[in-house]
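Design a sequence for this backbone.
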């Protein structure tokens, strides 16, 4: 359930415009980034206190993993990724819940996310396109089978490093490491949504991480764009609505506005 939220003072007009656009849209989609999960306690990419102030990106390098997967799994077992694994404890916040409500009501068709935290699904979203994978899962590098990451962690803690699939292949977290190709099917689906949609709502993304940032750029060429992000983004100038505030406050306010307008 979404708690009733007062429409944020000074933003009533933008919030109502965004609500009206969602009511009028034929096929609206949402594109989310790390910022949508900050209010769930997961730090974003670049803000101060962000993930890369605490972790060495080299530990998540695809070439290094391929060369010696045992190093990654040993570090993970020894708790060196403890902060990164906090995402397993995180819960959806009002922004995830508002997006799930919009999807259940048919106002949003698809959620395209750069996040790996599974919080959209936990909030109740169903059609979620994950561009960077999902940390709850691992994937066999040989047969491609996907399984819960806790199975791999159990193996590793029992001394099987790197953990293995039943086919003997090495298991890797099902998230995109640096230097790794994005999952082709997810990227194609996201591109198709960007081309077909008539409205895209961007939430919590700096829009500087490519190739994912191409998705809203493609949508912006023909569809209406709304941006909800604390900081300015490169697409602000072409968006119909830009709200520089917290997603967990803005999106529930948009939901309230839609409910109100639907009653009128
Ligand atoms: P980013 O860190 O580059 O940008 C996040 C943006 O969110 C910032 O511009 C910031 O102003 C904004 N923001 C922060 N708190 C906000 C809030 N409460 N409400 C609204 N906006 C807020 O993130 P990105 O564009 O997603 O790119 C980062 C990459 O890092 C992605 O590839 C993503 O996969 C990965 N990542 C994922 C997670 C996650 O799964 N939760 C967390 C960190 C990084």
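Sequence:
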């Amino acid at each position: 359930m979404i708690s009733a939220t007062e429409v944020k003072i000074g933003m009533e007009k933008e919030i109502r415009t965004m609500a009206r656009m969602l009511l009028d849209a034929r096929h609206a989609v949402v594109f989310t980034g790390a910022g949508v999960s900050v209010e769930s306690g997961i730090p974003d990419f670049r803000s101060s206190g962000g993930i890369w102030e605490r972790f060495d990106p080299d530990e998540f390098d695809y070439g290094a993993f391929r060369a010696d997967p045992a190093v990654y799994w040993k570090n993970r077992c020894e708790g060196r990724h403890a902060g990164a694994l906090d995402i397993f404890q995180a819960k959806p916040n009002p922004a995830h819940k508002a997006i799930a409500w919009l999807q259940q009501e048919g106002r949003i068709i698809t959620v395209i996310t750069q996040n790996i935290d599974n919080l959209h699904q936990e909030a109740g979203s169903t059609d979620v396109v994950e561009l960077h994978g999902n940390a709850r899962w691992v994937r066999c590098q040989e047969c491609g089978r996907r399984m819960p990451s806790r199975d791999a962690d159990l193996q590793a803690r029992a001394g099987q490093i790197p953990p293995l699939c039943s086919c003997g292949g090495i298991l890797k977290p099902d998230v995109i490491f640096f230097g790794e190709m994005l999952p082709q099917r997810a990227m194609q689906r996201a591109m198709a949504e960007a081309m077909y949609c008539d409205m895209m709502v961007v939430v919590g993304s700096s829009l500087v991480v490519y190739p994912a940032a191409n998705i809203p750029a493609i949508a912006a060429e023909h569809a209406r764009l709304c941006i909800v992000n604390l900081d300015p983004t490169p697409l602000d100038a072409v968006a119909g609505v830009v709200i520089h505030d917290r997603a967990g406050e803005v999106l529930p306010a948009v939901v309230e506005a839609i409910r109100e307008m639907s009653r009128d």
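The longest strand covers residues 133-140.
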